[in-house]
């Protein structure tokens, strides 16, 4: 098992004091880790996650309203002001409303972490139109619509940090998740294009490319069976070893806090001259590929 950093954030480093961050997919997993990391460094938060219009193709349950409330509570315990909103990133209207509410509450949005996403499994030849469309609409279209909702405000203010969640498979092919791969490749192209468009306006745009992250997105029977398809009974220890074999650093997956550390750096002013970049948090998987 991977071990979370011993100090996920230094309480003496308040890089986001006076800043406001919008985080999508904030109910749990990476989104919750991002929220607590930025809160611990002084940020106030606009937290959103999916509402009632839920995808049908995921092999695991998505977050509930109670999960988002828990994230907000943990952020407030760290001293942050936080508001929560239900929003489906497929909806321009809902995202525009989240941004408007956030600006009304805090007066500004400085950071966007476009984190919301889903995962599902199917060979391309057997993939349903619904599974394909939900993936593209959420994991790529949702990032586009979230960026579009906030970037005009950032350009007008002359300041902004946008960090989108791609994946280490956003730079290579992978069987049984071709729709996921396609969406994550698309996120990288979107990030690089927007980075050029807004570079002169004080806004940076970057992407994270994690390997497998220890969340419910991979910790479910469907993904375990993908790695061990011939097993009648799958043991967790076998899953750990199957994932571990993918990575030069001999760990099976990273913790959400590992990804949040990179997100916080890219969202901070320490990274003010980094834009259009893709930062792997990938246990060395990226070292095997030229791109």
What does this structure look like?
Helices cover 41% and strands 13% of the residues. With 291 residues, the protein is α/β, with parallel strands linked by helices. It folds into two domains: 20-211 and 255-280, NAD(P)-binding Rossmann-like Domain (Rossmann fold); 219-252, no CATH class. A seven-stranded parallel β-sheet has the order 3-2-1-4-5-6-7, with helices on both faces. Helix 1 runs parallel beside helix 2, helix 1 (29-40) crosses helix 8 (256-267) and helix 4 runs parallel beside helix 5 (178-198). The two termini are 28 Å apart. The model is unreliable at 1-11 (pLDDT under 50).
Short description:
This protein is an alpha/beta fold and about 290 residues long. Helix content is about 40%, strand content about 15%.
CATH architecture of the largest domain: 3-Layer(aba) Sandwich
- The structure class reads alpha/beta
Number of β-strand runs: 7
Residue share in helix: 40-55%
CATH topology of the largest domain: Rossmann fold
Read across the widest sheet, the strand sequence of neighbours is 3-2-1-4-5-6-7
- CATH top level of the largest domain is Alpha Beta
Order of helices and strands: EHEHEHEHEHEHHHE
Mean pLDDT: 92
Q: Roughly how many Å is the radius of gyration? A: 18 Å
Number of helices: 8
Query: CATH homologous superfamily of the largest domain, by name?
Result: NAD(P)-binding Rossmann-like Domain
Shape: globular
Termini Cα gap? 28 Å
What number of structural domains do the residues give?
Answer: 2
The proportion of residues in beta strands is: 5-15%
Flag low-confidence runs: 1-11
Major sheet: size, sense and barrel closure? 7 strands, parallel
